[in-house]
C-alpha cells in the first residue's frame, strides 16, 4: 500500500468514526443536556468558593464559571469518564486477533476512529453546555483569532492524550480479561486529576504540583488555561505533545506485546 | 412482593459472588469513586473555611446524609433506569407476562450488591461529621426521618426518570441528569445556588427535603434563603407526594407501553 492510500485509509476511518457516532444523536443530545445541568451545578459551587476567595489560583469569578462549562464540554470528545473504544469487547470475543493481522496499525486505526468520534461529539455535546453557560452566567469569550486557534490546537491535543491513555487501559484487557476494575480506576484518576471536578489550580501544595505534571492535566486543565490565556502557549502545547508522544509510544509497545501474547494463545 | 424482591436480590447477589475478585474490586472502586466527592470537598476547604456560610463539618454532614440516602436508593431500586435497554431489546415484554410486578423485576434486574460500599461510605461520613458537631439530643430524632425521606425521594426521582424512558427510549441519559444531578446538587449547602434554583428544588422537584430543610433543623441554622421555618418538618410529606407522583407516572408508562415488536 502506498503512503498516499494509507493516509486516505485513515482519513476514511476518521469519517466512519464520525458517522458511527452521528447515528446516536438522541443519546448525545441527552448527554449534552446532562453536561449542561452539571455545568450549572458546578458553576454555583465555584462561584461560592470564588466569592469567598476572589482571585484564587489566579482565576477571577468569570474564569471559574467559564472553567465549569468548558470542563463539561470536554466530557464527550475527550471521553473523560473513560471508554469510547471497543477494544475490550473485541479482546473478550477474540475478534482482536482479526484486528491484529490487518495490514494497518491497530493503534492508528483506533486513533482515526476516535478522532472522528471526538469531532462528532464536539459538535453535538460540547457546543450546548458552553452556549448555555454563556447565556445563563456569561462566560469569557476570547476576542482574538490567535487564542481560538491555540485553543483548538490544544483541544485536539487533549483528545490525542485522552486517546493515548484510554488505548493503554483498553489493551491492558488482554492481560486482565475483566476490564471493569481497570475502567473504574482509570475513571477515578482521569476525573480527579484532569481538573474536571475542581480546577487543578486550587489543589493544595505538592498535590497541585503533582496533578499539574500528570498526563490527565493535558485533558481539561491545560486546554482551559489556553482558552483563558492563563499559560504560556508554548509550554502548554509542549506539555501536551510530550505526554501524547509518551502515551502513544507506550501504546505501540503494549500493542506489540499483545500481538505476541495473542499468537501464543493461538489467537 | 417483598418476598419476591428479597428472593430476586439474593439470586443476583449469588450470581455476582461467582466472580469474587471482580466483586471485591468493584466494591472498593465504588467506595474510592465516592471518596472522590469527599476529596473535592476537602480540596475546596483547603482554600476556604466556609462555603455558602457553612463550615467543613456542616457540609460533610449534609454530604453524608445525601450520600447515604442516594446510595441506599441506588442499591435497592437504582436499576429501574435500565428500562430503556429492556424496551429496546424487547425483553420488557417477558417481564410483563411473568406473575411478578414488573417494578420488582426491574428494581432487582442485575442487582449489584457492591453498591452497598457507597451506603457504608455515606454512613461513615455522616457519623464522622456528627461527631464534630454538637447536635442537641432533642434534635437527633430528625436524622433517621431525614435519611428515610431522602431514600424515598431519590427512589421516586429514579422511578420518574425511568417512567419518562417509556416516551424517550433513546435517551436514557436524561434520567441520569435527574438522579446524578440530584445527588450532586444535594452534596452542597443549597445556599450556594441561586434563589430561583432553591425555590425550584423546594416546591417543584423537592430535593431540598432530602437533607437541606431537615438538616437546617438538625444543625439549628436559619434558612439563608428566608423560607418559612415549618418547611424543615415537611420531608415525610414531600417524600409521600413524590412517591405518589412517581407511582402514577410509572403506571401510566406501563399502561401506554407498546412493544417494539422485535
Automatic annotation (TrEMBL), chain A:
<keyword id="KW-1133">Transmembrane helix</keyword>
<feature type="transmembrane region" description="Helical">
    <location>
        <begin position="181"/>
        <end position="202"/>
    </location>
</feature>
<protein>
    <submittedName>
        <fullName>ABC transporter permease</fullName>
    </submittedName>
</protein>
<feature type="transmembrane region" description="Helical">
    <location>
        <begin position="22"/>
        <end position="45"/>
    </location>
</feature>
<feature type="transmembrane region" description="Helical">
    <location>
        <begin position="237"/>
        <end position="258"/>
    </location>
</feature>
<feature type="transmembrane region" description="Helical">
    <location>
        <begin position="146"/>
        <end position="169"/>
    </location>
</feature>
<dbReference type="InterPro" id="IPR010390">
    <property type="entry name" value="ABC-2_transporter-like"/>
</dbReference>
<feature type="transmembrane region" description="Helical">
    <location>
        <begin position="118"/>
        <end position="140"/>
    </location>
</feature>
<keyword id="KW-0472">Membrane</keyword>
<keyword id="KW-0812">Transmembrane</keyword>
<dbReference type="Pfam" id="PF06182">
    <property type="entry name" value="ABC2_membrane_6"/>
</dbReference>
Amino acid at each position: 500500500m502506498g503512503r498516499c492510500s494509507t493516509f486516505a485509509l485513515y482519513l476514511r476511518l476518521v469519517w466512519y468514526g464520525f458517522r458511527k457516532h452521528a447515528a446516536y444523536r438522541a443519546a448525545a443530545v441527552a448527554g449534552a443536556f446532562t453536561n449542561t445541568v452539571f455545568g450549572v451545578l458546578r458553576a454555583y459551587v465555584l462561584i461560592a468558593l470564588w466569592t469567598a476567595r476572589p482571585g484564587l489560583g489566579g482565576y477571577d469569578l468569570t474564569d471559574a464559571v467559564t472553567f465549569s462549562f468548558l470542563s463539561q464540554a470536554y466530557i464527550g470528545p475527550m471521553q473523560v469518564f473513560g471508554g469510547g473504544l471497543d477494544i475490550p469487547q473485541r479482546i473478550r470475543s477474540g475478534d482482536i486477533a482479526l484486528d491484529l493481522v490487518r495490514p494497518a496499525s491497530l493503534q492508528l486505526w483506533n486513533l482515526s476512529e476516535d478522532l472522528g468520534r471526538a469531532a462528532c461529539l464536539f459538535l453535538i455535546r460540547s457546543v450546548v453546555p458552553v452556549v448555555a453557560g454563556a447565556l445563563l452566567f456569561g462566560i469569557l469569550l476570547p476576542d482574538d483569532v490567535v487564542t481560538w486557534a491555540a485553543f483548538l490546537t490544544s483541544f485536539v491535543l487533549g483528545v490525542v492524550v485522552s486517546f493515548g491513555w484510554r488505548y493503554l487501559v483498553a489493551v491492558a484487557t488482554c492481560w486482565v480479561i475483566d476490564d471493569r476494575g481497570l475502567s473504574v480506576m482509570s475513571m477515578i484518576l482521569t476525573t480527579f486529576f484532569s481538573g474536571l471536578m475542581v480546577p487543578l489550580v486550587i489543589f493544595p501544595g505538592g498535590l497541585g504540583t503533582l496533578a499539574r505534571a500528570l498526563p490527565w492535566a493535558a485533558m481539561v486543565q491545560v486546554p482551559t488555561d489556553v482558552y483563558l490565556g492563563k499559560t504560556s502557549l508554548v509550554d502548554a502545547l509542549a506539555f501536551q505533545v510530550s505526554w501524547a508522544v509518551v502515551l502513544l509510544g507506550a501504546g505501540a509497545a503494549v500493542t506489540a506485546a499483545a500481538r505476541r501474547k495473542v499468537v501464543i494463545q493461538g489467537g | 412482593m417483598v418476598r419476591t424482591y428479597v428472593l430476586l436480590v439474593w439470586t443476583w447477589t449469588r450470581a455476582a459472588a461467582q466472580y469474587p475478585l471482580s466483586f471485591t474490586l468493584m466494591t472498593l472502586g465504588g467506595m474510592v469513586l465516592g471518596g472522590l466527592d469527599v476529596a473535592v470537598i476537602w480540596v475546596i476547604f483547603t482554600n476556604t473555611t466556609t462555603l455558602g456560610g457553612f463550615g467543613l463539618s456542616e457540609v460533610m454532614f449534609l454530604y453524608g446524609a445525601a450520600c447515604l440516602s442516594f446510595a441506599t436508593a441506588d442499591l435497592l431500586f437504582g436499576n429501574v433506569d435500565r428500562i430503556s435497554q429492556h424496551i429496546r431489546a424487547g425483553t420488557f415484554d417477558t417481564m410483563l407476562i411473568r406473575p411478578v410486578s414488573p417494578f420488582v423485576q426491574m428494581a432487582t434486574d442485575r442487582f449489584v450488591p457492591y453498591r452497598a460500599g457507597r451506603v457504608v461510605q455515606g454512613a461513615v461520613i455522616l457519623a464522622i461529621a456528627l461527631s464534630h458537631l454538637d447536635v442537641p439530643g432533642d434534635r437527633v430524632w430528625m436524622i433517621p426521618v431525614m435519611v428515610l425521606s431522602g431514600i424515598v425521594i431519590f427512589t421516586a426521582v429514579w422511578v420518574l426518570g425511568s417512567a419518562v424512558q417509556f416516551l424517550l427510549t433513546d435517551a436514557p441519559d436524561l434520567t441520569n441528569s435527574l438522579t446524578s444531578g440530584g445527588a450532586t446538587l444535594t452534596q452542597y449547602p443549597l445556599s450556594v445556588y441561586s434563589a430561583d434554583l432553591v425555590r425550584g428544588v423546594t416546591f417543584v422537584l423537592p430535593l431540598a427535603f432530602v437533607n437541606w430543610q431537615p438538616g437546617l433543623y438538625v444543625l439549628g441554622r436559619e434558612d439563608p434563603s428566608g423560607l418559612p421555618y415549618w418547611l424543615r418538618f415537611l420531608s415525610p410529606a414531600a417524600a409521600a407526594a413524590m412517591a405518589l407522583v412517581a407511582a402514577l407516572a410509572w403506571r401510566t408508562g406501563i399502561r401506554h407501553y407498546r412493544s417494539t415488536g422485535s
